[in-house]
Amino acid sequence: MISVANALQMVLSTRDCFGVEEIPFLKSAGRILKEVILADRDFPPFNRVAMDGIAIDFHQFKNGQRAFKIAGIQAAGSVQITLQNPENCIEVMTGAVLPNKTDTVIRYEDVIIDDGIANITIDAITGGQNMHPRGKDGKSGDVLIQKNTLLSAAEIGVLATVGKSSVKVAKQPKVMIVSTGDELVAVDEIPLAHQIRRSNVFTLVSLLERLNIPSETAHITDDKQILKSKIERYLQHYDVLLFSGAVSKGKYDFLPEVFEELAVEKLFHKVAQRPGKPFWFGHRPATETSQKKSIVFGFPGNPISTFVNCLAYFYPWYCKSIGLEIEEETAILGEDVNFRPNLTYFLQVSLENKKGCIVAFPISGNGSGDLASLVKTAAFIELPQDKLVFKKGEVFKIIRYR
Which of 269, 203, 219 is nearest to 6 (CA)? Predict the structure, then answer.
């Protein structure tokens, strides 16, 4: 049995690259950028009007002029016009090119227009006000979005602005999620007294969807030969296999034997943690007969064990593989906790913001099979091994799932 830290280090050491694909920019939200996005022109590309109003030559106002004859209109999207007489003004609309030979915009709210004359009603204005200078946001060739950025709606707008109708992103791994066990039935079935509905698979599907990873699912009964036959096929077609169940010490927990027979190298089995101690992890390297490398996560079948192991190990492994840096988050423990086993404790907590600090309050559950308890909580707080008492006010790492 290895420590949580060593288990995570071993998982991260198997990180992989699944390649790069080019997709339409509108489909790229939530994906990891794999190219640098440069400005194709100055931003803004012209001196842009920031308020509806009139554009003047500030020098005239400075010399005392307050009434300006309107000489034209500069609409947004129209070709730049020129102020021929500095004693006149041009009406301008937000987003328009600032007319040539003007340098200052005065809002409509600060002028009275009467019979084609705009009379300024305020005593103080600033030269260059209410206009957005060319290149202020960025110069042509500037880096606007760095490689390995997680793309969001903000970046989508930038991609559109620079004309990137398609963009290079990290390719997602091909994932199969497998549940095992004769006691499991489909969601839409009525279970018998000795059966339960499949839930872990769909929890994992949803957790992967948060990362924009599509997945397929399968269920295999507790038959070793059927398990071996199907898993052998999955290893040839998928980058990652996620299993829920059949990795502990039960008579029908065949997966460790099956993995060994299929030449899946075990990197560890059992982690000094609660919940999720029977966690099995390994990989099958590419061979001469099969170029497909497969990573295998064998999560224990209890719902909370599956849930926390996916967050604590699969998430960091995926982020490391695609080049996404994730920041560790901490919280203040809101009350004392005693935990006697010499294990790392992933304790379910609710989170509250108190005076700008995140405080974690333990929520009592009924063990690793209590799936419903997740509804009442927002995160796991990671209480380290080799300690029995955790005091209110101490700070520990948390893993959010809300």
Answer: 269
Task: Tell me the CATH number at 282.
Answer: 3.40.980.10
Same domain, 254 and 290: yes
Alpha carbon 389 to chain centroid distance? Answer: 34
341 with 354, same domain?
yes
| Average pLDDT taken over every residue of the chain | 92
Residue 301 has pLDDT above 60, yes or no: yes
Here the CATH number for the domain that contains residue 385 is 2.40.340.10
Rounded to an integer, what distance in angstroms lies between the CA atom of residue 242 and that of residue 204? 8
| Judgement on whether residues 284 and 184 belong to the same structural domain of the protein | yes
Query: What is the end-to-end Cα distance of the chain in Å, rounded?
Result: 30
Q: pLDDT tens-digit profile of 154-195?
A: 999 999 999 999 999 999 999 999 988 656 666 666 766 666
Using one digit for the tens of pLDDT, what is the confidence trace for 200-211?
Answer: 788 999 999 999
Range of the domain at 279: 4-18+172-322
Beta bridge partners of 331: 396
CA distance 85 to 104: 15
Q: CA 27 to CA 3: how far, in whole Å?
A: 40
